[in-house]
Amino acid sequence: MPEPDTKELRVGVVGIGWAGQQHLMAYNALEGVRIVALAGMEQELRDSLQAEYSIPNAFADWKEMLEHGGLDAISVAVPTFLHAPISIAALERGIHVLSEKPIARNAIEGQAMVDAARKAGRVLDVAFNHRRRGDIGALKEVIDDGGLGRPYYAKASWLRRSGIPTLGSWFTNPELAGGGPLADIGVHALDYALHLLGEPKVLAVSAATHSELGPQGRGGGSRYSAQATSHAFEVEDFASAFLRLEGGGTLLIEASWATYRETDDLLDFTVYGTDGGAELKVQGAPFPPVGQLRVFTDKDGESADYVPPVLPGRAHDAVVEDFVTAVRGGPEAWRGHDGSLALYRAQIIDACYQSAREQREVRL
């Protein structure tokens, strides 16, 4: 087995919003990693971040950043419609890529990204940070150790009461975002649910979407836009999907940007197994580092419910560190990081939207 590459890794970050700043902080904390380039359109913020992280090169245009050269890896933290063109351009230059989720607007674009990564022999990772939460890790250990027996039903949700990212922005335009909350935050619920269940194959989906509050200019919370009209909100604000899994199990996914419920965001997971069940509830805005996790089981006919020990997870820090580790692992490690897992999520989300449009079950 070849020795891991320990030379300094030169990275760039495309995107200077919240997600891009998470990547900057995570790279900055790693030894042997140097942030050498930054790309973002807002000059004042770009200049501020360039100074804060002592980044030698900053650009308004991502194409100029790639053409400038001197990059081993980049993070792509921009609107979804730009994930594919930026990632493919970087991969074709031999640059490893960490993209924010979802992988792309749809599975067709996602497949093109995976194909580019495989052709280039480079890493393509996608930032699913919630699977790296400490409470999800603790529940994963319980399930993998057989503590629940065979899981046969699960439900995963990310629900907001008034959390449309920005009314009338790219988020609410399907041509730019690919979809609403199902594509934006529902993909997180789908990812950590499949991760917890051991990556079962999804056989069929039956989904429904609703657009009830956004078209009325409601559901934007503090980011409400008075200019929002029906034509400014063209995606769903709530979605649910019922997934049939190989082996007979089922999974329910729910995602909302706007629905009448408790004020705080809710990230949750419920699972029922042949020997036990579990519930995880993470509530707040932002989410606390540790949620409420309980395991339900019995012993000798008596209740033996308990609360597993949980350490806080590291979210984007862990995403970036795992990416850097994969890049440094050499070609053998790269083959396991080609974006195919994120592509599978995109294929499932596409099937859900097809099911909702056609009002029928769709087989994968």
Automatic annotation (TrEMBL):
<dbReference type="GO" id="GO:0016491">
    <property type="term" value="F:oxidoreductase activity"/>
</dbReference>
<dbReference type="InterPro" id="IPR000683">
    <property type="entry name" value="Gfo/Idh/MocA-like_OxRdtase_N"/>
</dbReference>
<dbReference type="InterPro" id="IPR055170">
    <property type="entry name" value="GFO_IDH_MocA-like_dom"/>
</dbReference>
<dbReference type="GO" id="GO:0000166">
    <property type="term" value="F:nucleotide binding"/>
</dbReference>
<dbReference type="InterPro" id="IPR036291">
    <property type="entry name" value="NAD(P)-bd_dom_sf"/>
</dbReference>
<keyword id="KW-0520">NAD</keyword>
<dbReference type="InterPro" id="IPR050463">
    <property type="entry name" value="Gfo/Idh/MocA_oxidrdct_glycsds"/>
</dbReference>
<keyword id="KW-0560">Oxidoreductase</keyword>
<feature type="domain" description="Gfo/Idh/MocA-like oxidoreductase N-terminal">
    <location>
        <begin position="9"/>
        <end position="128"/>
    </location>
</feature>
<dbReference type="Pfam" id="PF01408">
    <property type="entry name" value="GFO_IDH_MocA"/>
</dbReference>
<dbReference type="Pfam" id="PF22725">
    <property type="entry name" value="GFO_IDH_MocA_C3"/>
</dbReference>
<protein>
    <submittedName>
        <fullName>Gfo/Idh/MocA family oxidoreductase</fullName>
    </submittedName>
</protein>
<feature type="domain" description="GFO/IDH/MocA-like oxidoreductase">
    <location>
        <begin position="138"/>
        <end position="278"/>
    </location>
</feature>
